[in-house]
Amino acid sequence: MVTQSLTDPLITLQGVTKSYRQPNGQEVIILEPIHLMLRPGEIVALLGPSGSGKSTLMRMIAGLIPPTSGQVLYHDRPLVGLNPGVAIVFQSFALYPWLTVLENVELGLKAKGEPAAPRRQKALKMIDVIGLDGFENAYPKELSGGMRQRVGFARALAVEPELLCMDEPFSALDVLTAENLRFELLDLWLERRIPTRSILIVTHGIEEAVILADRIVVLGRNPGRIRADLPVTLPHYRDRKSPAFQALVDQVYKILTHPDLQEIEPPAPVSTPHEPSPEPTKYQSLPSVRIGSIAGFLELLEDRQGDLYRLAQEFLMEVDDMLPIVEAAQFLDLVAVREGDISLSSVGQQFISSGIDERKHIVRTQLLAHIRLVQQIYRLLQAKRDQRLPEELILDILEPHFTAKEAQRQFNTAIDWGRYAELYSYDEPSGEIFLEAATTPELVVTNP
Ligand SMILES: Nc1ncnc2c1ncn2[C@@H]1O[C@H](COP(=O)(O)OP(=O)(O)OP(=O)(O)O)[C@@H](O)[C@H]1O
After folding, report:
1. Which of 16, 19, 20, 222 has most ligand 1 atoms within 8 Å of its beta carbon, as the pocket-test mutant?
2. Cα 27 to ligand 1 centre (Å)
3. Of 74, 274, 288, 327, which has the fewest Cβ atoms less than 10 A away?
4. So what's the ipTM on this one?
5. What is the pTM of this model?
6. Is 90 exceeded by the pLDDT of residue 340?
7. Please, what are the domains in the chain?
8. Mutation test residue for ligand 1: of 26, 46, 55, 409, the one with most atoms within 8 Å of CB
C-alpha cells in the first residue's frame, strides 16, 4: 500500500492548457499553461472574472474534460478519465426531479458500483450530517433552494471524495440561505465531520473566498491564467469587519480591478517542460456593459469616492455586477482606480457635468483613443468606398482571439458603444455596419 504524507499533493496541474477549435477551424486558447497544486487540509478558492476559465479548470481536475496539453496528476499519477477522488457540487443543484432525496443522494454511490445495503446506509448517514433528516422521501420540487443544495452536498459527500469541488454552490441561493449554508459547511469541515481532505470552490464572491479559503487563486482572462495565489492565514471564524479581513478583500479587489497588474506571487512552477506562452491577444476584452450604465455609475461616484468594496456594499451590488462597469469606465479613462480606491478622472468629471451631446462627443474621443476594436471598425469603414462593412468581416477578425460566443459579445459591445458615440451604425437585418454621415472625428490612437 502506498502511504501518503499529509503534504503530498492530491492534485498537481503541470502546464495544463485548454483550447477549443472554432467551427471555422481556428483554435482559441481558454487557459494558458497552469501550474497548481492542491494539498490535503486546504480550502482553495478559484476567483476570477467571467470567462477566465474557472469552471474549465475545475472540470479538468474532475476529469470531465481532458486538457489540451499538460497533465493533471492525482496522487502524482497522470489522470485518465474521471477523477475517482473528486465529487462536484453544482450551482444549479443538478438533482433528478423524479427521484427522492434519498435516491438522489444514492446516485453517486450507485455510479461507483456500491451494493444496495451499504449504499443506503452511507446515503442516510450523509443526509443526517447535512441536515436533511426527515426529508429522505421528499422530492426536489417540495424543497426550498437551500434544502435542494443540501441534497447536492449530501450526494457529493456520500461518495467520500478526497477533493470536494464546488462550482459557485451558493450563488443560486438568497443571501441569508447562502450565508447559513456556507457556515454550516465550514463547521462540518473544521470539525472534520465530512469525509473530504480538500475543497476547491469556484466563486465570484471575494468575501466568500476570504471567509472560507486557506488560499485564493485569482485567474485573469483572455487567455485564462493564474494572476495571484494568496494564502489566507486568518483564523476561522473570520470577522468580516476586522482590518485584516478588509485588507485582504481590498487586495483581491485591487488585483481584479487591475487586469494589467503584473502577476502577484506567481505559483512555483512544477518541474516539467512546458509549452511557450501563446502570443498575447491584441484586443482588449471589452466587458458587456452599456454606456448608459457607465454613465449612471459615474453619476453615483460624483459625490463619493473611495473604496470600491465599500461602494459595492453601499449600492448593494454584487462584485460580478460592479467590476465590469468599473473595467469599462477604466478602459475609457473615465475613472482611476488605485489601491482599490476609485475616483472620477478629469474626463469622467467633465462627462458627468455635460449634456447628452457633449457626453457623446467625449465617448467618441475616448473610444477612438483607447478601444482597439472600435478604432479598427471605424478605420475599415473609412477605407471602404461605400462606407459599409458586413459584420462577418469583424467576427472573422475577432474569432482567432476569442471563442465564437465571446467574439459575438465583443462585437455587440463595440457596436453598442460606437452607436452611442454616433461613430457608426448597424443595420441588424442586413448585418451591415455603416458610417454615420455627419461624423468625421480625428482618429487619435494611443496604446490601449
Ligand atoms: N465547450 C466549449 N467550447 C468552446 N468554448 C468554451 C467551451 N467551454 C467553455 N468555453 C469558453 O471558455 C471560456 C471559459 O469558460 P469558463 O466557463 O471556464 O469560465 P468561468 O471563469 O467559469 O466563467 P463564469 O464565471 O462566467 O462561469 C469562456 O469564454 C467560454 O465561452
Report:
1. 20
2. 14
3. 288
4. 0.97
5. 0.70
6. no
7. 11-257 (3.40.50.300), 291-435 (1.10.10)
8. 55
